[in-house]
């Protein structure tokens, strides 16, 4: 086994601090490091000025009569712990002032000097702890493999249906795609989803659903096989370009397969004959405005009714995981526990929420 293969096989066994370059959990916008450095310099100058004024007002308590420049010089060498010894406090009041005031200021000044290093170390420790908590608590989330055009559209649909961004994990090898996902508020994992350890780091074994949307069909098959082995109960929705590969994904364990080339082809054909139908289809598939296809549970007062007579435009009835179209005999009456597939009107307030 090669060195890179061994590294891939050992990913899930790495400590949390070793995954800082692999897992990224989105956070609020950070302050610029240059601004932090400028602020520390301003604090240091302020401390120096305060000590200078204290020493100058008590200038009679030192080994020589001090000018303001002498007080500034003494404050600088004292706060930086250089301490040349050419100016020293000689009275009891001056020495007490050094103990009670200047010494704490000296400690604060040193903390400011090493603040950048401490900040880096604290930041890495904080991120490692954040990753540790995330890996323990993440449950029933959705993993999206590939953040290209299909992956981004899938995430947009998930968000429109009310899935929180922090419940979506993106796996990709392209850093630009991962940066885009992180900017969208998603948790990202850098790596190849065909590797079982990368999937485990993303928590696939505890995921509710997995969206497989890579650019290549053979990659989709390998990812689906790996996911199904690790997560037997997860719902797997996969995308392929060519219809002849659909049965491979279904045999690999995909619950649902979307054929992108055929779908695009049908839309193109419809556009040449009935453009308005294509416009309506795009509206139904778009989660941002207009209408969308959604699913909801039946209410108590709807049980026993014919779904055609309900207020919503019902397309089908989902019963025990099986979809029955509105014109099928099984969908003539709504039963307890059914779910309705219907057309929902999307308002701008819904998108914002």
Could you characterize what this model shows?
The protein has 353 residues and is of the alpha/beta class. The protein has 3 domains: 121 residues, Helix Hairpins; 125 residues, Rossmann fold; 65 residues, Alpha-Beta Plaits, CATH 3.30.70. The chain has a 7-stranded mixed β-sheet with strand order 1-4-3-2-5-6-7, with helices on both faces. It has a 4-stranded antiparallel β-sheet with strand order 8-11-9-10. β6, α10 and β7 form a beta-alpha-beta unit. The N terminus and C terminus are likely disordered. It holds the Pfam family Ion_trans_2. It is found in: Cell membrane. This is RCK N-terminal domain-containing protein. It is a multi-pass membrane protein.
> Mind telling me the C-alpha Rg?
32 Å
Secondary structure tally: strands = 11
CATH topology of the largest domain: Rossmann fold
Counted by DSSP, the helix tally is 13
Mean pLDDT: 80
Overall CATH architecture of the largest domain: 3-Layer(aba) Sandwich
Measured between the Cα atoms of the first and last residue, the distance is 50 Å
Q: Compute the number of structural domains.
A: 3
Which word captures the global form?
elongated
CATH class of the largest domain: Alpha Beta
Taking the sheet with the most strands, its summary is: 7 strands, mixed
Biggest sheet: strand arrangement: 1-4-3-2-5-6-7
Mind telling me the CATH superfamily name of the largest domain? NAD(P)-binding Rossmann-like Domain
Percent of sequence in beta strands: 15-25%
Residue runs with pLDDT of under 50 for 5 or more positions: 1-9, 349-353
What series of H and E elements makes up the topology?
A: HEHHHHEHEHEHEHEHEHHEEEEH
Helicity, as a percent range: 40-55%
Which structural category do the helix and sheet elements fall into?
alpha/beta
Organism: Corynebacterium efficiens (strain DSM 44549 / YS-314 / AJ 12310 / JCM 11189 / NBRC 100395)
InterPro entries: K_chnl_dom, NAD(P)-bd_dom_sf, RCK_N, Trk_Ktr_HKT_K-transport
Keywords: Membrane, Transmembrane, Transmembrane helix
Membrane topology: Multi-pass membrane protein
